[in-house]
Amino acid sequence: MKRKIIVNLDTWANKKIRKPLVLLGARQVGKSYVLKEFAERCFGNSHVFNFEKDKKIHIFFEIEKDPKKIIKLLSDYTGKIINLKKDLIIFDEIQACPEALTALKYFAEDAAESFICAAGSLLGLQLSQSSFPVGKVDLEYLHPMDFEEYVDALGLAPIFQSYMKAPNDTNHSLIWKVYIDYLIVGGMPEAVRYYSENKSSDVGDKLQSEVFEQISNIHEQILTGYRADMAKHSGDENSMVLDRVFINCAEKIGQDQSEKFIFKNVFPGKRSYEDFFGPIQWLQKAGLIYQIHILDSIKVPLSVQKKESQFKLFVFDVGLMNHLAGTSFSQILGYDFSHKGFISEAFILQEMIALKIKSNLIYSYKHSMTEIEFIFDYEGDILPIEVKAGLNLKSKSLSTYLLRHNPKKALRFSQRTLNLQSTKEMKVRQDWPLFLIQESLRKKKAIPK
What we know:
This protein is α/β, with parallel strands linked by helices. Helix content is 46%, strand content 16%.
């Protein structure tokens, strides 16, 4: 499965002088896989050291600070020659060894010619006993597989590319079916891999049901691992609160997507923002949820307008979100349920974050009867994004917003087929299919030259 982040790793490797690279992300988003694929593609030799699996190597980082001496100890331990100037050295699960995390700054200062990559879970590094080597490492963030990576993994990239060149209803229906399946499968690599190897082309046959049942089992195993992390790092009592907040983020898909997060009835005895501030911050640090604040006015910078206690929460992967909420795959396949608006909103957010748009810079807007799912500063202008789950585009919200704030561009996403002519024209409002959110932003068609 190809991951786009490989391009960024190639750029890093081609630098004459480089800092160690740290690949961050929630557990099981594919960090180890990406680094191993990178090693196979770009290096003749690579060496992987996993600090969770092999505790014996911790001592080398405890007794030595000199990078060359550390590498010599690792070389002697494995019985393999390690060329510091040519080989890729991977420190996996680095959060398990605080001394190794600290050692990265010595590699930056004293071995800038080396190729050091480290992978770690966001949570483990946030809670590490050692201070993070700020300024001494290059950071890359890996998220769940986005829709384009998913399409490529299924071998459907040619259809996707053909649609972009000449949109038509036939190809639109095919890609829309792939999009619906993505809402079930999500972007966790293990789930995508299983689906790509076992999916059936027959919508109604028994095999498809069995495949989706197995994906549900994969999602549950992933969530079990997250819950184990919650208990390990926060204790059994606090982990119950974390788990309830996490589940509640998904269960909110049944309510009006414009509503802010309601604290009542999430956990017994806790009713206020102050009660849930800690758990929400914890889940954000772990990379498991996104917090989107709701604004009622538009002033630059947007951050000064936010009210800390008014926000929406989203699970970081749409497949896990639907599993947590108990939404059956048959409901999603039929696309006939009350909360598909929120699912569409979660998908759009996930795609924007995959484009390296920081979640803390994305907001929702609600003023009187005007509700806009997302607004953010895009290339110096506030860009509003309206999300429509179906074919019906009737809504006064975006029209009212356009009259009140006069943005240069506004994007609206829906189930409708792409109209290339409308996206080429310098219209204020552009319409795109839901699954082309990245295309609309990446190609800079959202803002006129």
